[in-house]
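hey so u asked for the seq, here:
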Amino acid sequence: MSARLAQHDERVAAAAGAPASAMNGPSLGDEDFAFLRRFVYEQCGIALSEQKRQLVQGRLQRRLRALRLRDFSEYCEVLKREPDTELGELASAISTNVTAFFREMHHYDLLVEKLLPEWLEHKRRQGDRLRIWSAGCSTGEEPYALAMVLAEALERSGGSVDAKILATDLSPQALEAARKGVYALDRLGGVSDERRKRWFLRGQGEYDGLASVHPRLRELVTILPLNLLHDWPMQGPFDAIFCRNVVIYFDKPTKEKLFARYAQMLPAGGYLFLGHSESMHGLSNDFELIGRTVYRKRP
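ran it, structure tokens below
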């Protein structure tokens, strides 16, 4: 293909909202797209519109190449035969994992200034444990940021409390990155200089430009695969659940069911944190809004 033709195809693909690679691989036909839409909705709660066809086609072509499949019909057969094996890869391909350390800082300010001191004092008196769940943890920035403020609060409290953070996600690639806990230095933009020095180990030599989270943070965080629409192995209760920039992919019935399940995992007075573009308005009577995308379970 000439450079001029390649550039033309790239412009056509961009105009259609698809990656240029989507112009060169197999096409996603009506029957296969209809199956993928049903499968993704039933398994992940993600509603794919017709307008997403080109995006899905372009992103899943990488999975076809990785699995050495000829077309989307063969990929659909894989999903039918081995739904649990491929589900995480599919969800990872069609969703966007955008995250950062200390994203939406007002949530962390609430933890530092009010919630963690109160929780730790109460837990220490009662001999109880403290649990926070990062649901949809992506590549780990959120749970490790939570671990930083938790570790600092534990030091300030001067007491011994059983405190842990559960981090879950459906994407195998995201979970692998979270378990590694190694980030490019330019990914630490939201971390203060003091916290960078305290909670990260800077790489040298071949690892120059990278930083690894401190072992203390790893001690506080447990990372596990979990599909929010399937059964949950943990019993709870959690003192707080962070589910930020996750439900934007879900339709109203799926959101209602998920919020009801979260309510079961929280005690009266427990907290649910959503993303900046998300709301629980008209979706649940179990929670009251007490701050910017901060909800508290009603008594």
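Strands lie at 130-135, 163-169, 182-184, 200-202, 210-213, 221-225, 240-243, 271-274, 287-291, 294-297. The radius of gyration is 21 Å.
lmk if thats what u needed
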